[in-house]
From TrEMBL:
<dbReference type="Pfam" id="PF00067">
    <property type="entry name" value="p450"/>
</dbReference>
<dbReference type="InterPro" id="IPR002397">
    <property type="entry name" value="Cyt_P450_B"/>
</dbReference>
<protein>
    <submittedName>
        <fullName>Cytochrome P450</fullName>
    </submittedName>
</protein>
<dbReference type="InterPro" id="IPR001128">
    <property type="entry name" value="Cyt_P450"/>
</dbReference>
<comment type="similarity">
    <text>Belongs to the cytochrome P450 family.</text>
</comment>
<dbReference type="InterPro" id="IPR036396">
    <property type="entry name" value="Cyt_P450_sf"/>
</dbReference>
Length: 400
């Protein structure tokens, strides 16, 4: 895997031509595998003999994975994404109260108001930039970050710092020293959030999690509390940030598809679903581990191997989506559902919130700036330095 990331689709197509499962070399020459085909990935994500807990990561348990390994946090952070069975159900049940359909719908007015305010900021940034502004910085990032931090009770003064640290934690080209420093600073920052909410609890999710821990000490340990907040901060804004960015890129470079939406032949929700499939905000997500030697699509994945879920590859698998799988089509038949938000027990808990944020963002953005277009050729846009996140580092746009 290229630690510098870049656009994954050409490499994915080459790998898929050879099979649904591929052997890969992770940073630090760690042997791993990736599941790329749609059907194989769907089976793998829900397989009873596949675990998330790093106790099943053979190389880690053998002491072969050093501190500072850029992907170590994905394997070891305490929380839902590294828990199995009863532990996973316990942690997910605590979080699910914040993501009921009613609570998500109650957020709609706040999301619509925040979106409108950020569009004002985007317009001001364009005025200061000769008509050009970075949509990712001024719109796509602060929208989901503002929403998730409001849910968690995180003060606005922490937003920029938490985004910077999140970027470093998901980077795959970062040095061991910088990786350790970013993780330590993130733990310190989240510790400050916990301390603030412990002293002054509110109606936010962090306060509720602290109360659950204090009411029954075995419900949520201190490391699980910090790990859960880390998961929520990163997953709660990085993926939606990439989703909005990728959707705007796609619509600006496929004006015929944008016309289908504005003419009423497709919806903004269709654009969100097609972006999730065609240009998944997460390219390869770490990790899952077979608890026994597992044969998938004719390929053996040895027990204890760290496996990447290849969402960006599965989304363009022609065996699942037909010969036009690599085309962006908002009116595509959706009989085959994409896997970009997961599948099985670990399906993304925040999926309804991400969809609402992205749909609201696109609808208001193009209603206010119908002639919005890229200010830089798409091929020249700098890519994420990660094979986990899939997007561009900035998105300069001209509003009119």
């Amino acid at each position: 895997m290229d630690p510098a990331g870049g656009c994954p689709h050409a490499a994915n197509a080459r790998l898929l031509a050879e099979g649904a499962v591929a052997s890969v070399v992770l940073p630090g020459d760690v042997a791993g595998m990736a599941v790329l085909g749609h059907d194989a990935l769907k089976e793998f994500l829900a397989h009873p003999d596949v675990a998330k807990n790093a106790a099943h990561f053979a190389a880690l348990q053998a002491g072969e994975i050093p501190e500072g390994w850029p992907l170590r946090t994905f394997a070891t952070v305490p929380g839902m994404t590294t828990a199995d069975g009863a532990d996973h159900k316990r942690l997910r049940s605590l979080m699910s109260r914040a993501f009921t359909p009613r609570r998500i719908e109650d957020l709609r007015p706040r999301i619509e108001k925040l979106t409108a305010d950020l569009l004002d900021n985007l317009a001001r940034a364009a005025e200061d930039g000769d008509g050009v502004a970075d949509l990712r910085t001024h719109f796509a990032m602060p929208l989901p970050m503002g929403v998730i931090c409001e849910l968690l009770g995180v003060d606005e003064e922490h937003h920029t710092r938490l985004h910077r640290l999140s970027n470093q934690i998901v980077a795959t080209d970062i040095s061991p020293e910088r990786s350790l420093a970013a993780n330590q600073e993130m733990l310190q920052a989240l510790g400050q959030v916990v301390a603030a909410r412990t002293q002054d609890p509110g109606e936010d999710l962090t306060s509720a999690l602290i109360a659950a821990r204090e009411e029954n000490g075995d419900r949520l340990s201190p490391p699980e509390l910090i790990g859960t907040l880390l998961l929520m901060i990163i997953a709660g804004h990085e993926t939606t940030l990439n989703l909005i960015t990728n959707a705007v890129r796609a619509l600006c470079t496929h004006r015929d598809q944008l016309e289908l939406i504005t003419s009423g032949k497709a919806t903004w929700a269709d654009a969100v679903e097609e972006t999730l499939r065609w240009d998944s905000p997460v390219s390869f997500f770490p990790f899952r581990y077979p608890t026994r030697d597992l044969t998938l699509d004719g390929t053996v994945i040895p027990q204890g191997t760290p496996v990447l879920a290849g969402y960006s590859a599965a989304g363009r698998d022609a065996d699942a989506y037909g010969p036009d799988a690599d085309q962006f089509k908002v009116d595509r038949d959706r009989t085959t559902r994409h896997l970009s938000l997961g599948h099985g027990a670990h399906y993304c808990l925040g999926a309804p919130l991400a969809r609402m944020e992205a749909t609201t963002a696109l609808e208001q953005l193009f209603a206010r700036f119908p002639d919005l277009d890229l200010a830089t050729a798409e091929a020249d846009l700098p890519r994420h330095s990660s094979f986990v996140g899939n997007s561009v580092h900035s998105l300069p746009v001209r509003l009119s």
